[in-house]
Structures are given as C-alpha cells and as structure tokens.
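Supplementary Methods S3. Input chains for the assembly prediction are listed below.
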Amino acid sequence: MPIRAATVHAAARILKNHLNDLLAQTITETPLVVFSVGERSGRVNVAFRQAGKPRQVRLRTRFGPMLLHLSQTCEGMPIGRRSYQLQTIRYRYSLTAEDAEEPIVRWEYERTPQDDATWCRHHLQGNLPLPAPLSISLNELHVPTGYTLVEEVIRFCIHDLRVRPRSDDWHRRLLASEETFKRDFAPPTDRR
Amino acid sequence: MPDVPADIQAALEAGELSEAQLRELIRLEAEALGMTFEEAVAKARAGTLPRTLIASDLEMLVELLPQPKAA
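Predicted structure tokens for the full assembly:
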C-alpha cells in the first residue's frame, strides 16, 4: 500500500492507519499521532502523544519495564500533478529505562544533515558505557547502521527484549509491512 | 510541560496544525526546557538540545517550521 494520496494530509492519514494497525497487532495499542502542518509545509510529524505532549509507551521486557518512543519527520514528494508520496527524512526511535532521563539506545537518521556534519546519517547512540580501550559513552559515537525500519525496532522488542506480542502472526505481519515499505514507500537511496 | 491548549489537541487529533499552532506547541516545549522559543529553535537546529523526550520532540517539531534560507 503506497503512502500516496492527493494531499499530504491524506497521505499522512494512510501512514497513521498503517502504523497504528501494525503496532496494535504487535506490541502496543497506543496509537501514533500523525499530523501535517498547513498546506504549504509538505511535512508530517509522527510520534506517540498524549494530550498533545510527547509520550513513551511502557513495554514489559525481560529486563523489566522499558519505555519506547517512535518519531519520524516525513515529507510529501509530488508525484505528477495530482498526488504526493510520503518519504521519511528523519527518524528517532529510542528505548529508555523506566526511571531514566536519557534513552539507553537511540536509532537515528537524517536524510540531509548540515553541511559540516561528517557523521553517519544512519546511526546508533545511547547512554551506554563502553569498555576499554574506548572507555566512553556510546553517545559519543555514531555507530553506523542500515536504514532502520519501525518494523525492525518492533521485532527487536519482541525477539530480543521478549515483549509479549499482541498476536500470534506478528512475525508475518512485520515481514509484510517491511515488504510494503521497500516496494512502495522508500526511495532507492533510503533502501541502502 | 504546560498543558497543551484544547484547540491544539483537537488539531493534532484531526491531523493538521496551522503554523501558529505548531509554533505554540514548540513554545510550550521550550518553556518546559527553561528556554525561549528562539533559544530552543536555535539549539534544535544546531543539534545541541539535551537528549530528553521533550527536547527530542522539540527538535523534530522544529523541522516542520519553514526552513531558514541560506545566506
């Protein structure tokens, strides 16, 4: 299902419904809030919110409760004269211990960082002390990753953190959603 | 963080904010971080905000503002 519609607002609604359906079938019934700004901006924000404020979703993991936050900025790219397709220009996904201020781990991506940025566009950071000889926090590095899908973060939560999936066919649903993204959503440069 | 006005909450649920509403949401998050709107936007664009939930969200919201033109 392409994230494509006659307006950016309509495309945002398709994205919202797709992601929230996926989340409800896998790890949480808490919906993402998706909004566009005016008619000219062409950009869309995706995040968990409650009463307008950003929120994290509490997950029961094998390490105890952890807090998940998912956020994206998408841009509506004109396709011909009559439709827009959404493409992710930035994402930030994080897992935080329940009583912590900063995430343990963050997956981040910026399509076009500032000109003087020489770090990896797709990277992993976190409030994790690294052993010798590094002896620094993971926050001081930009460990390269591939383009990280929301589906892969969900999979990590279920497989590695042992979050109980909300349906028995979570694996199939994630595979199908990943395939949809590769086929219909991502421009070729983001599939690297 | 201060409460988000009802009209902005309704606009978020409806899926579309005006630029003025976006700026107000950013201002509220800036206030929660002890900053003015201008300070928060500058730090967001410089990538120097703290790594907390509200700061991270503010950074993402700033991306929705009209981008400054290159000098």
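The CA atoms of residues 1 and 180 of chain A lie 6 Å apart. The first strand of chain A starts at residue 4 and ends at 5.
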